[in-house]
Every structure is written in structure tokens, then in C-alpha cells.
Amino acid sequence: MRILFDGHIFRWQKAGGISRYFTEIISRLPEDWTPTLLGLNEVNGNLPCHPRLKTSALSALRPRRFSQPLKRAWWKQCQIKSAQLLHPTYYTLTGGLRFSDFKCPVVITVHDFIQANFPHLEAESEATIRCQREAILRADHLICVSRATELDLLEHYPRAAGKTTVIYHGSSFPVTSAPPEIDPLESPKFLFVGRRGTYKNFLFLLRAFAKACQLHARIRLCVAGPTLTEDERWQIHFLGLTDRVEAWTLPDEPTLQRLYQSSAALLYPSRLEGFGIPPLEAMACGTLAVTSNTTSLPEVVGEAGILLDPADESAWAECILNVANDKLPRAELIQKGKQRAAVLSWEQSAQRHAEVYQRLSAGNRTSGLS
């Protein structure tokens, strides 16, 4: 099967949940299929690894406003014309392409409706909402990353009923079987992973952690993700956490895996998620997942972790202390977490994507939702 993937996300996001998702899925497609990524450039991050993967960069000639139309015409003749299916990596197409350029079926992955439901939380929300709407209305089929996201989709677009499939993400880390080399409770260290702005609720976590620090002299917090902002550093200082917080800026995967495995628990108080990969990664690495009881996170964690109100600082502080003082059935929850992570695998996710692709390419193309 010849599948086109618009490569927008690999230029926009070198490391992140969406680029990881497409890397994992494309890498696991059947070996006799031919996936093609359009619109890459020389500064891409980790790309998929597939024996028949083809890539086609944006035009290297400047100015691109003159050279890219020629490249787009070449894409239409040599790539788009023979494609059996298009799956854009984001809601925006690359290199000036339009959905009207494609005659093949279109699959769109809907990650969340955070910006649509809460447009004040993120910059440039209006543009993203507009592009998301255009992509959804054009789609012949919609993959939702959780039941919560599917419910949001059907609330916004009731006509999408019957054109959706829920396919969960997987963990890029294998499910560990070996116990940690050092007991994480000997010197309890907690972990926060990922972006920290707005709905990720990081400043809330700092306040809750500061409360716990008043009653425990040895607990520490590791923060893995983008560089700490000046405001975050000031918050850490004012809360008296300067000696209790250590930052790991965009750690590579082996380092991140070690951080998970050496932590007493992952603390993930996000208010809103379309899926939520860090709790799943934590469970795969044999780490207790403590996360919010909202949106998709209960789906991901199930009964294998601890779910808390993301607005209750005292509950989070109490939970941190209970973990550090070994007052929870941590070993039992970790074992359940490993079992949960084994079920939510990228292998199963990729297989279900392939089934959607085959079913859609074999049927008649629809006219989308519009």
C-alpha cells in the first residue's frame, strides 16, 4: 500500500508526543507497504525507520514562494497521483498543499480538543482551531486517541458518528521485568515529565510538593522537559525548593528511562489530556503513576495508578508523603501498571492503524463530513 504522510509535525516538533506517535506507527507498518513523508528538511529529529520509507523535502531553492509551487506540482504528479491514502501528521498540510489536491481517502488523527474547548489557554488557538476544523470536515475517517477525545469530537461534530475509531497510544519503553537497582524509597525522588505550561498544572504541583517538603526532609523532584523558564525558577525559589528540584533538559530516551526507573512515582497533575503518554511510560518502566482523575487519564491508568483531583493541593501533598513513607500498596500498583502497559503497546496500535488504512483504501471514498 502506498500511504502519504504529510511531514509537518517533524519540522515543527523534533521531540514530542505527536511526532513520537507517527514515528512509532510508520515504523511498524507492514514491510511491503510504501510510506512516504512529504515536506521534510535537513533539520528533522528522529524519523521513522521503515525498510521502504520514502522522503521528499521542501524545495531547497530560495525564495521558496517561487520554487515550492514547482515542487508541489512535482509532488502531485509523482507522489499524490499514485497515493492510496493520505494521513497528515497534523491538521495543517505542508508546502502549500491543500486537501483538494488529494483524490484518495484521508485519515485524520484527533489528539484532543483542548484549544477548541479552552481557547484562552494557548497562543494562536484561533488558527489551530480553524485548521483542525478544516481537517476534520475533510476526513474520510477519524482516529481518536482516547474515548474522551472521541466524545469531545462527537459533541463538536455529531456527523462524525460512524466514522471514528479509538486507537490508544503505546509506550516507547519496553515493560520492565527487573526490579530497580536501588530502592527508590531509600531517598525518595519524584518525577515530572513533559511540557509544563497552562493546563499541565506544573505550578500547582510545585505548591503541593512544597507542602510535602515541610513534613519530609529528603524528598526531591526531578523535572524532565524543556528548559525551566525564569518564572518557574522564581516560583521554585519563593517556595523554598531550590535545593529540592533538579532539572533535566530534554533528556534522551535512555536517560528518561533511567529517571522513570529511579523515581518513587511520576507526578502528572495535568488538568486536560487527549491521551497522556508519561503515565503509560511510567507504568512500563515500573514506576508508580500518580495523575489526575480528569479527561483521558483514567482510561490510560485504569486501576493501576493513583488518580487525584488536579485542583486539590492537600490531596497531592498527602499522596506524595504517603508514597515517600511507604504507606501505599506501591508494589501491587506497579505490577498492575506493568500489566496495563503491556496491553497498550505500539505494536497493537500500529496493527489497528493498518486495519483502518486497509479498510478505507478498499472502500469508496466519501466526501468527508462537510
DSSP strand content: 15-25%
Estimated structural class: alpha/beta
Q: Strand-and-helix sequence, N→C? A: EHHEEHEEHHEHEEHEHEHEHEHEHHH
CATH topology name of the largest domain, in short, is: Rossmann fold
User: Helical residue percent?
Assistant: 25-40%
CATH arch. level architecture of the largest domain:
3-Layer(aba) Sandwich
pLDDT below 50 for ≥5 consecutive residues: which ranges? none
Taking the alpha carbons of the first and last residues, their distance comes to 27 Å
Q: What is the count of β-strands?
A: 13
- The shape, in one word, is elongated
Average residue pLDDT: 91
Domain unit count: 2
The CATH class of the largest domain:
Alpha Beta
CATH superfamily of the largest domain: Glycogen Phosphorylase B
Number of helices: 14
Strand order of the largest sheet: 10-9-8-11-12-13
Rg calc: 22 Å
Largest sheet: 6 strands, parallel
Kindly list the characteristics that best describe this protein.
alpha/beta, Rossmann fold, 2 domains, 14 helices, 40% helix
What would you note in describing this structure?
It is a single chain. The chain has two domains: 2-169 and 346-362, Rossmann fold, CATH 3.40.50; 189-343, Glycogen Phosphorylase B (Rossmann fold), CATH 3.40.50. The chain has helices at residues 8-12, 17-27, 64-80, 114-117, 125-138, 147-156, 202-213, 230-238, 253-261, 277-284, 297-301, 313-324, 330-343, 346-362; strands spanning 2-6, 34-40, 54-57, 85-86, 107-110, 141-144, 164-166, 189-193, 220-225, 245-249, 265-268, 288-292, 306-308. β9 (220-225), α8 (230-238) and β10 (245-249) form a beta-alpha-beta unit. The mean pLDDT is 91. It is an alpha/beta fold. Helix content is 40%, strand content 15%.
